[in-house]
Amino acid sequence: MTRVAVGCPDYPALAARIAARAGGGEIRFATRMRPKRADELIGGKLHFIVRHTLVARVEILRFEDRDDGRIDIVCAAALERVHPQPRRAHQGWRYLTDGDAPSADDDASGIADLPPHLYRELAELSLI
């Protein structure tokens, strides 16, 4: 799944937000409706879009009903940086196929450290 990290200008800001809101090694994200494919998503990843670029992900542990009728997406609080990919912003969350999911940034190229706007420009020029 993908979700826009509203208000986060870059990866360090997202990492700080996750760390500040984590409790007991978990973090919760509220949503209005349970995903139709919720059972398939458990053990999968929730990817974050920062400034039109996928930059990180967390593991989805479970879905829990709240007293107010909303649903909590309960995730591991360990944020994993991924190889950046340009993405359009959207509201709520979207499904991401396995083929479209970015890989973990395990190369030492430094591409993941580029500012999102510079990465986007280089990708548009097919340089990365």
Automatic annotation (TrEMBL):
Q: Supply the InterPro entries for this chain.
A: UCP032025 (IPR008320)
- Which top-level group of life is the source organism from? Bacteria
Q: Which Pfam families match?
A: DUF1489
The name under which this protein is listed is: DUF1489 domain-containing protein
